[in-house]
Known about the structure:
The protein is of the alpha/beta class. It has two domains: about 5-230, P-loop containing nucleotide triphosphate hydrolases (Rossmann fold), CATH 3.40.50.300; about 235-320, ACT domain (Alpha-Beta Plaits, 2-Layer Sandwich), CATH 3.30.70.260. It contains eleven helices and 14 strands. The strands form three sheets. The chain has a six-stranded mixed sheet with strand order 6-7-8-3-9-10, sandwiched between helices. Strands 2-1-4-5 form a four-stranded antiparallel sheet, with helices on one face. Strand 4 and strand 5 form a beta hairpin. Helix 3 (about 105-115) packs across helix 4, helix 3 (about 105-115) packs parallel to helix 5 and helix 5 (about 145-160) packs parallel to helix 6.
Amino acid sequence: MSDTRTAIDAAExxxxxxxxxxxPAVRALDGLGFRxxxxxxxxxxxxxxxxxxxxxxxxxxxxxxxxGTATVAGHDVARRPDAVRAAIGYVSxxxxxxxxxxxxxxxxxxxxxxxxxAAESRSRAKRLLAEFGLADAARRPVGTYSGGMRRRLDVxxxxxxxxxxxxxxxxxxxLDPEARAAMWAEIRRLSAEEALTVVLTTHYMEExxxxxxxxxxxxxxxxxxxxTPDALKSALHGDSIRVSLVEPDAAAVRAVADRVPGLRxxxxxxxxxxxxLAARTDDAxxxxxxxxxxxxxxxxxxxxxxxxxxxxxxxxxxxxxxTFGDTVVSPARKDAA
Length: 337
């Protein structure tokens, strides 16, 4: 009998993509396991190549694991894929609606493809357009929509058949701040009012911090750490220091940081004309002055210097070893806690 309190249960997931020619096999998942409670927003975070997309593909039945098991809404993804598909909604990074059709037509067709009668599809489309603030533009071709409007319609289309689990893959990428805030509000409403379980993959740490009840950090196909944003941040004692660097020499900055007492988890990243020095310390007020003095003495140019309580960026930095980005150049650490 399935546990209705658990929306997703993954255990020992392994996914190996076989090699071809000279290209070696890739182990995308390496024993990944986690649980997602029902009715929660669950953030899946990690660097590019960490295994997030592979995990999502397995949970949405778009790919099969090499080994391991997973259930979604109580259904085994390998044994009952049709039941899983009926229970989930999926919003990919790309647009899923037809730009030549109106919003109403898109949603009605989505309902019909899900096996809903015509009358029910029309009723459901009308309600969703109202809930997502698109009623006034319901009969306009979707190709005339703004990016934010189109993204909201993508989510509405994934909800036509009333799924119990919704997968959102980078839902706000490319949106302006106003549209992103509107999407955040919709995600909060869906979780709170409709008890919908939402699995969110995102590159915006602020987004995960604001929306997710719980976060799983994945790296190299394995679970690194899981918990609520507040619990993960509070586990990092002390404060964080970040310095924006101008045309940095990573080795020189690293040498300077090594001479500043009280710094730990030091990371220097340099790319082109800018970079970042990030570290943690127990006494930010003393460390900031010491860092500035050391950089000035070494003739290293810098911009903004900021100290703050731990953020999710710092959690990521602590467990993965570099900041949340696609490219890492010249990382350095010392005295990792």
